[in-house]
Amino acid sequence: METFTRLRPLEQNPDFHMQRKISLEALRGDMIDAPIIDIVNGINSLSCCFTIQCCYGHFIFEGHPDPHSIEPLPDRCGILNVEYRIAYVALCIDNSEMGKRLFSGLNDITAVDPENVQFCCADWFWERQINSYALQVEPDRFKHEDKAILDYQEALHIEKTRNALFSKLNIVLQKF
User: Fold this and answer.
1) 21-59 as b/e: b if 16+ CB within 10 A
2) How far apart are CA 34 and CA 14, in angstroms?
3) Which of 2, 65, 86, 95 gives 10 a disulfide partner, CB atoms 3.0 to 4.6 angstroms apart?
């Protein structure tokens, strides 16, 4: 699945509020990874946006094959490679003053780690929902993918970046 395409400007969407209502009615708590439930609820509490999909980001390695694990990476050096499943929040933003402020705030989050954090669009999201964007943590060389094989030290760095991104996202949401 390609997750990264160029950032598009917000467009007018007269159906935004109806689309938001339908999306939020279909959302169930068991669809969200536990560590980001509060963030998703924070996003969805804003009238200018709603989530489409999200993932906390998962690390899979020898002896730890659970693709849904939310456990932090261990402090072991014996792990050579880690399969990283991308951390992201995909959301739809209304073309309103509040939506434009949120758009700007999300774009600023990339400063957490510009080589590994992207604020972008995904064509397949946009085709289903205009004004859909993704804030993702993925090494730049893999930004078009939804998973990557990383050496252990890079995986540790990505884990720290993921945690920093969600922390910063929470701070941005509190400004609304």
Assistant:
1) eebeeeeeeeebbeebeebbebbbebebbbbbebbbbbb
2) 33
3) 95
Cα 131 to the center of its chain, rounded Å: 15
Secondary structure of residue 60 in the 3-state scheme: strand
Query: Which helix or strand (DSSP H or E) is residue 51 part of?
Result: strand 49-55
Of 137, 148, 159, which is closest to residue 75 (Cα–Cα)? Answer: 159
What is the crossing angle of helices 37-45 and 152-174, to 10°?
30
Extract the runs of DSSP E, i.e. beta strands, from 65-160.
81-85, 87-93, 117-120, 132-137, 147-151
Residue 137 dihedral angles phi and psi, to the nearest 5°: -115, 110
**Is 119:110 a contact under the CB 8 Å cutoff?**
yes
Mean pLDDT over each residue of the chain, to the nearest integer? 93
Q: Which residue matches tokens 């007018």?
A: 12
Give the residue among 75, 57, 76 at the shortest CA–CA distance from 67. Answer: 57
In whole angstroms, give the CA distance from residue 20 to residue 23: 5
For residue 151, give the amino acid letter: D
Residue 63, Ramachandran bin (φ over 0: left; ψ between -120 and 50: alpha; else beta): left
Q: Cα(116)–Cα(109) distance, rounded to whole angstroms?
A: 11
